[in-house]
Amino acid sequence: MSEAVTRPGITADALLASLDPLLRAWLPRQRWFAGKGRPITEFSVVTATELLPPTSESGLLHLIVQVRQPQVPGQAGGAPPQPADCYQLLLGVRRELPPRLAPALIGHVTRGPLSGFTVYEALHDSRMSGFLLEALRTQARVGKLRFERDRRRDIGADLAPRVLAAEQSNSSLVYGDTYILKLFRRIVPGSNPDLELPLVLSRDGCAQVPPPAAWFLADTGDDVSVLGVLQPYLKGTVDGWELALGELAAGRDFSGEARALGRATAEVHRALARALPTVTLGRAQVELIADGMADRLTTAAGAVPALQPYAPALHTTYEALADLGRGEETWTAQRIHGDLHLGQCLRSPAGEWSLIDFEGEPSRPLAERRMPQPPVRDVAGMLRSFDYAARSHELWAPEWAGDCRAAYCAGYAEVAGRDPRMDPVLLRAYETDKAVYEVLYEARHRPDWLPVPLAAIKRLATNGPATEPH
Question: Rounded to whole angstroms, how far apart are CA atoms 405 and 385?
């Protein structure tokens, strides 16, 4: 449902008439745009707010736009239609763009109420990004936008902003090396786990997750959407992926770090289990999990021919899980990270590990991402990440990956009291499910990387050696 912009006299439809041609060309080029390779058939405005009205000098426009595209090829013929995606945009508006902002150019408007103005990505403009921090600090309310904060945490004014250059599915601003603001680009109504879980963990006193200092929301019809979260910037940290690749290239052992990371993961799982409800998975739930894994395998094998020779053997892994669920054994499910890998972990100069980015896999529905799940799913994701690191090296280093996998599980057991490898059927099923997901992702987005998950698929399909407990 469209909303009028804050300034009277300019409707959302009129505003869209100004921006439509520019956004059709600009949006598909952005790293965080999910619908690459498909044309945009329709735009609509969910919310539009003038945070700073356009003047002869500059203005700041906040938009949530809904984008409609044709279905993904191969998903027609009875598949449910894909919902339209919503994206958060922060657009700067100027009569003339100074040279320093030239890389942020979106385009020149030639029609509608913004005719004669130049539109650009506002995050690269320090005045505009500074406005966001001030709005969070002062708990501003503008139109449909609400800026909130934890008043126990001091947020200084006039912290110099800079955009993180790393490509990712969202956008991040660092303020004075003190705070980092994560802006969600693809917006889904409802409680975002990347705010929900760190808030819960901060109240529990979990030291392994940076506590949210402030956040902002939008009223989007019948629900509220989380638009961004401000957290402490962990200066001097290095993400686990970069650290692992560096150690691997230098020929150094990483098992000590992997063990510490296993302990940190278990600490977070333990805190989540204390703070939020847990459930027991019985026969029906385990069979449902196994059926979902089997369905994802069937879909992926239909889309990636290289996976098809291994599909029958992989299905036996899921059948073994379903059979196990029909026995007396049960498992506990709880809230988890949901997309854990080395790139979601930061190590401080003192050697302490932090876990970040609790959004879960963005391609999965929000309701699914917020469901309790076995903690071993996070473990399986990290085991796959060690394998990815080892195979991204010039020479495949299976011993390095095996040592890391074993050390991580051992470290996890030191805190959790149970080694994930003591549930081999469950662990293998989740690792297989993750590898199948990776095959489909790489085939669609990074074909050169496809051999990495396919190597794991071959090992898992042939019942190759798994990480054994010491």
Answer: 9
